[in-house]
Design goal:
Elements (H helix, E strand, L loop, with lengths): L29 H5 L1 H16 L11 H15 L5 H6 L4 H5 L6 H15 L12 H15 L7
Helix pairs in contact: 2-3, 2-6, 6-7
């Protein structure tokens, strides 16, 4: 992984004004609409997009395994069983991402990668009516992950 993607001990910690409790989760009925296989496929497609993005260096290891972990998180988030918590413990996503330098610019690349996948929502069984709510969640969730200023 490129050193530019790691936070340094001397980097000031950026804390967004909003907290995670201000982010509305997506519709929990999405799990029933999409199913586990489609959620896995959606996250695999997302990590393929990340692999082609300017932040690909943030994900140098096994992107298939990273997509699997993310799928487990999203399965629970979308109303399915809490597979991520069962396997890895409480999500605590901001804490898990603190070692990485996540700036607003990197967040924008992350969101753009997910947006390209959401354009294929039908492929994953996500109804068009659910895309705006899912997108709002991603926007709020990713804003909470930002932990570094652009000039750190």
């Amino acid at each position: 992984m490129s050193p530019r993607f790691f936070r340094h001990a001397s980097d000031p910690m950026f804390v967004p004004e909003m907290g995670p409790d201000t982010v509305s989760p997506p519709n929990p009925a999405l799990y029933g609409m999409m199913g586990e296989a489609a959620i896995h496929a959606m996250l695999q497609a997302f990590y393929e997009e990340l692999g082609r993005s300017e932040i690909a260096g943030m994900f140098p290891g096994d992107r298939v395994a990273a997509a699997e972990r993310s799928a487990l998180f999203f399965i629970g988030l979308l109303g399915g069983p809490p597979l991520y918590a069962q396997r890895f413990g409480a999500p605590r996503m901001r804490a898990r991402h603190l070692p990485f330098r996540i700036t607003t610019a990197y967040r924008d690349v992350w969101l753009a990668s997910f947006e390209r996948v959401l354009k294929r929502h039908e492929e994953f069984g996500m109804p068009a009516s659910e895309v705006p709510g899912f997108r709002r969640f991603l926007e709020g969730f990713s804003a909470w992950m930002v932990n570094s200023s652009e000039d750190a």
